[in-house]
Amino acid sequence: MARAAAETIYPLLGAVLGDQLRVRLRCWDGSVAGPPDASVHLTLRRRRALRRLLWAPNELGLARAFVSGDLDVDGDLFESLAQLDRVVHPERGEPIRADRTGRVAALKAALRLGVLGPPPKPPVEEVRLAGRRHSLRRDASAIAHHYNLSNEFYGLVLGPSMTYSCAYWTDEAKDLTEAQTAKHDLVARKLELRPGMRVLDVGCGWGGFVRHAAREYGARAVGITLSTEQAEFARKRVAEEGLGDLVEIRVQDYREIQDGPYDAIASVGMAEHVGAAGLPGYAATLFELLTPRGRLLNHAISRRPEFTVRKDKSSFIDRYVFPDGELEPLGVQVSALEQGGFEVRDVQSLREHYARTLRAWVDNLRSGWAEAVRLTSIGRARVWQLYMSACALTFAIGRIGVNQVLAIRPDTDGGSGMPAVRRI
């Protein structure tokens, strides 16, 4: 009689995870192994899940198996990922890798189970971009991959604010919408917006901040995005709110702006798309677009310096979520701004706020799951489920952070226009 799949595979899990984590495994043939009260419950729905892992025994293989539905994590995905992370990642963030003995055992198990064969085709949601990295055309393609899904899908996940960046959970914020409004106002106050000021929002998304700047502060705001879907939505909202005289939405790359100077610039969740090599040029461009004593609010995700960037392209985020996105340490971001001529005046971490924001987005996705699948695909919905749950975890444990850096363009005499006492 053929050996049950779970009975064959379960010892391999033990070889990798040791006795640090209790796992319950269910396989495509109905076989089950592991304690019923295990911390993590995994289901291998098809033999193909193992083939994916054999050809890509890393994060990418796991992601392909999950996105395709070949592998399921039963129960709360965030909690399961947290349990797995404690075992798979030691302090320095390097994943445990199977040794030669483990790989040989895996191949023997695969042979017994009849799952050997050519690499399965990746899910259609996976993308690999062509052209020179961070060229105008390739950056536009990267943005389109992520942001041009559908405004209805983003509305389901993000909620009424349609704001796709870290919220600011003040004591007064009762829900996600109010927390996003608090974030918009935090940015506006740091920039000290006033009526008639020209403010540029680099990577304006669906226009939440520019509308807030115009409506609440009387600023004349220009928002730029590379996403046609975002621009269409933002222009409609601007018109509905009667802000057409104060707000302009453009489909434009920040490197192509010619109508400076601006009194203030907000860049929220955009610098991550620039790349390490592009940060100096990014800083220099924004510096030139500002008037003397003008302020820049750069809100960006950062990684801890000890967690190095993989060069093997096995990243789930790079292949499925943010192609060409790059996270740099806070110190690298600040240095780029300073080298571009800016004087950095304030830094505020919002790391815990982003973990909470992501959990709110996951809750929205869960409650609207059927509609999310209808608007995109089951694979795309699973991408977002995995991506947001994993990111919530990495923010919560401090592997990545998010910071607001306030910088100024000093005038020729070194004047800053900053108050002597910190007001925010």
Automatic annotation (TrEMBL):
Q: Where is the active site?
A: 391
Which InterPro entries does the entry link to?
Answer: CFA/CMAS, CMAS, SAM-dependent_MTases_sf
GO biological process entries: lipid biosynthetic process; methylation
A molecular-function term among this protein's GO annotations: methyltransferase activity
Give the matching Pfam families.
CMAS (PF02353)
Q: Which organism is it from?
A: Tamaricihabitans halophyticus
Keywords, A to Z, come to: Lipid metabolism, Methyltransferase, S-adenosyl-L-methionine, Transferase
What name has this protein been given in UniProt? Cyclopropane-fatty-acyl-phospholipid synthase
PANTHER family (UniProt xref) = CYCLOPROPANE-FATTY-ACYL-PHOSPHOLIPID SYNTHASE
- Would you identify the family this protein belongs to, as annotated? Belongs to the CFA/CMAS family.
